[in-house]
Design brief:
Blueprint (H helix, E strand, L loop, with lengths): L43 E5 L4 H12 L3 E6 L2 H7 L4 E4 L5 H10 L3 E6 L14 H22 L3 E10 L12 H20 L6 E7 L5 H8 L4 H9 L10 H12 L10 E4 L3 H4 L1
Parallel strand pairs: 1-2, 1-4, 2-3, 4-5, 5-6, 6-7
Helix pairs in contact: 1-8, 3-4, 4-5
Length: 278
């Protein structure tokens, strides 16, 4: 638009299209979308890793915000403990045959939160190939298979959130295979954002720093001095503390809802500022 309020004419003589005349494709936010009540009301969301940690916290928050949940994880009892009223599907997300069979019976989805993962420590030289393969399977192959087989189940306008890690954004000692696998998750989110864009499906990754989860607790317990290890973990960010499962779940819920409709292809650190300053 020029200073007179008119859209300019090109060298070929045609007028540049006023973008305001284009069809509106973005979802309109309205009270029905549910801020701050139940912004996920009527949405059917699948959560992997729902039997513990971040996956469990997110599933419960999604339910509080009105979603219908499909919970996926290895242990049926743990899934039932998370949300007894949800639909429970015990499976290993890295098992292609199991994921393919599950996808065959899964209904349409408004979203997926792919939180399942596993941590094993070690340097490149000190990590067994079998442990490297386990890290790739648990942290990258699993989300890949879920996206591959369940992508066709996603409704237009759906939202998918993958859980990466802030140590896939910056290298730290003793977590080589895990960091490499999670870096793949970040790129997978960006690729899916591109591939699914024609269906207005968004895909983002979140990159948590150290969170008080059972996985982190196990790592601390295995250290020679758990108290000192906790202090080191808490000291790697400007806020000088570990994050909570609830804080990560809140970010995931935001990305699932219509209020984040212009956010896709992003890798979002949630690490107390560690990625910004270290």
């Amino acid at each position: 638009m020029n200073m007179t309020g008119e859209w300019p004419v090109t060298s070929s003589g045609s007028t540049v299209e006023d973008p305001r005349s284009r069809p509106e494709r973005s979802p309109r936010l309205s009270p029905a979308a549910g801020f701050p009540g139940q912004p996920l009301a009527g949405k059917r969301i699948l959560v992997t890793g729902a039997g513990s940690g971040i996956g469990r916290a997110a599933a419960r928050l999604f339910r509080e915000r009105g979603a219908e949940l499909e919970l996926v994880g290895r242990r049926l009892a743990a899934l039932q403990e998370t949300l007894p009223e949800a639909r429970h599907s015990p499976l290993d997300h890295a098992d292609e045959a199991a994921v393919a069979a599950f996808a065959g019976s899964c209904g349409p989805l408004d979203g997926m939160f792919l939180a399942a993962g596993e941590l094993r420590t070690g340097s490149v030289e000190g990590t067994l190939t079998a442990d490297f393969d386990t890290m790739i399977a648990a942290n990258l192959r699993g989300p890949w298979l879920m996206a591959h087989y369940l992508g066709p189940k996603l409704k237009e306008g759906a939202s998918v959130v993958l859980v990466g890690s802030n140590i896939a954004l910056r290298a730290i000692p003793d977590s080589a295979a895990y960091s490499v696998a999670k870096a793949g998750v970040h790129m997978l989110a960006r690729v899916l954002a591109l591939e699914w864009s024609a269906r207005q499906i968004r895909c983002n990754a979140i990159a948590p720093g150290p969170i008080h989860t059972a996985m982190v607790e196990a790592r601390l317990a295995a250290s020679a001095d758990p108290a000192a290890a906790l202090a080191r973990l808490a000291g790697v960010n400007p806020l000088q503390r570990l994050g909570t499962e609830a804080e990560v779940a809140a970010l995931a819920a935001h990305l699932m809802g219509a209020e984040s409709a212009w956010t896709t292809g992003a890798v979002i650190p949630i690490d107390g500022g560690a990625d910004a300053v270290y």
